[in-house]
Amino acid sequence: MQKYSAVYSLASLFLTILLSVSQAKAQLEVPPQLKWKTLKTAHFEVIFNAEQQDLGYLYAEKLEKAYSELRSYFHSRPDKTIVIINDKTDVTNGYATRIPYPHIMAYPVLPGPEESLSDTGDWAFELLAHEYTHILTFEPANGIMKPLRAVFGTIIAPNILMPQWWKEGVAVEMETRLSDHGRLRSHYQDATVRAMVDAKTLRDFDIAEANENIYTWPQGARPYLFWLFDVESDDRGQGYQSCRRTA
């Protein structure tokens, strides 16, 4: 009995530390001096700078569109997802996690011509479709994970442990499948692959490197490129089936 008590105590301590770190990170992420507003839709709570109301409403519309189009691919979906529109940087990016709860941090910055994201159409939709795909891939908890989630809550997310190339790859597949652009149609991505072929370095990469942000070219683009190879070898037509199998 004492053994189980010690395990529960350690688990509680770990969860407390994890949640404290997550909350501290969130406080650093969001400028506290701004006045924030929350717009509630059927499936999202969109938090935005009160002075950027048009941006908040635009992103809310794109999020509901992403939900409508992605629901046919994913069986498990959270009741609500928190989305923060955080215009604090000039970096084109965003991220999604479910710790401590499902949420997306979106930086509403258009990609520049020098970036791998430059071949875009409806950028707001592509960004949000990509990040919300992450939320949906993290959502399933079946088998033994189901009772564990009932006890420990939303941090139980087995798919979050999938390889980086798979997590980013599924999101790239969906951003491309649901839009007229996306990275699987990107001239920048194709040029990167051609450069590897010309330099005869394409076969120098192994699957372990696909999960790393190594400080040599093409740096953090590796997970996206390796999914490109996988989908193309699958004739660019069946890649989405892997999404359905894990949803």
Quick take:
The chain has helices at 2-29, 53-70, 123-138, 145-152, 164-177, 187-198, 222-233, 240-246; strands at 36-40, 44-49, 81-85, 93-97, 103-107. By secondary structure, it is an alpha/beta fold. Mean pLDDT is 81; it is low at 19-24 and 235-247.
Give the strand content.
Answer: 5-15%
Largest sheet: 5 strands, mixed
Number of strands: 5
Shape: globular
Strand order, largest beta sheet? 1-2-3-5-4
Structural class by secondary-structure content: alpha/beta
Q: How many helices does DSSP assign? A: 8
* Fraction of residues in helix: 40-55%
Task: Output the radius of gyration.
Answer: 19 Å
Helix-strand sequence: HEEHEEEHHHHHH
- Report the end-to-end length measured between terminal Cα atoms: 37 Å
Low-confidence stretches: 19-24, 235-247
- Kindly report the average pLDDT value: 81
